[in-house]
Amino acid sequence: MEPSVLHNPSQAGWIEVICGSMFSGKTEELIRRMKRARIARQRVEIFKPALDTRYAAAAVVSHDESSIPSTPVSSPSQILLLAGEADVVGIDEGQFFDDSLVDVVTRLAQEGRRVIVAGLDQDYLGRPFEPMPRLMAIAEYVTKLHAICVVCGAPANHSQRLVSSGDRLLLGATESYEPRCRRCFQPERRGDSHQEPVRSTQTPEGSAL
């Protein structure tokens, strides 16, 4: 759920988290909220990790090519220095920052700002992707988005890695990842695009069919 774009500086700020798998529309939703804040004549600042140069060095760009100018930063502490008088602070790809992002976001909210963070909540192995889970725990609003599984068409909650790499942080788009549902997600298999999932031959009680 998205709160009202109206912002009263005399009131306490809040934190919004937009999470989900790759290709679920997280960045697109962040851009939409930031643009709505601008229409409401609020002062906005958007930040992204400096290492994310997939589409543009100084813009947040979604996979469907929606974009908004942003400031690349190498650490969360820079966000505090560069936020200025912004009423609304947007942060994309939160999973690429270290745990200090939690303290930075908390401080911004305590200053009376609306803070919106978008990012992956799980890594390529399906594990919680810090610091996003901690941000979800302290946020007033959490929006979890889903993509569509490329194998079966069910709601996708996982990011299937398609390249052979054990690095947890690996930038990529459709050449490196595809969305999968819980049943079709195979974190142990990488390297073949559109791999057919291995179907279980066990009943729920564990006996062979």
Topology as H/E string?
EHEEEEHEHEHEEEEE
Number of contiguous helices: 4
**How many E-type strands?**
12
The CATH superfamily of the domain at 14-147 bears the name P-loop containing nucleotide triphosphate hydrolases
CATH topology group of the domain at 14-147? Rossmann fold
What spatial order of strands do you see in the largest sheet? Answer: 5-2-6-7-1-8
Question: How would you explain this protein's 3D organization?
Answer:
This protein is an alpha/beta fold. The protein has a domain at 14-147: P-loop containing nucleotide triphosphate hydrolases (Rossmann fold, 3-Layer(aba) Sandwich). It contains four helices and twelve strands. A six-stranded parallel β-sheet has the order 5-2-6-7-1-8, with helices on both faces. A two-stranded antiparallel ribbon has the order 3-4. It has a two-stranded antiparallel sheet with strand order 9-10. Strand 6 (88-91), helix 3 and strand 7 form a beta-alpha-beta unit. Helix 2 (76-82) runs parallel beside helix 3 (100-110). The chain starts with 13 loop residues before the first strand and ends in a 29-residue tail after the last strand. Mean pLDDT is 85; it is low at 198-209.
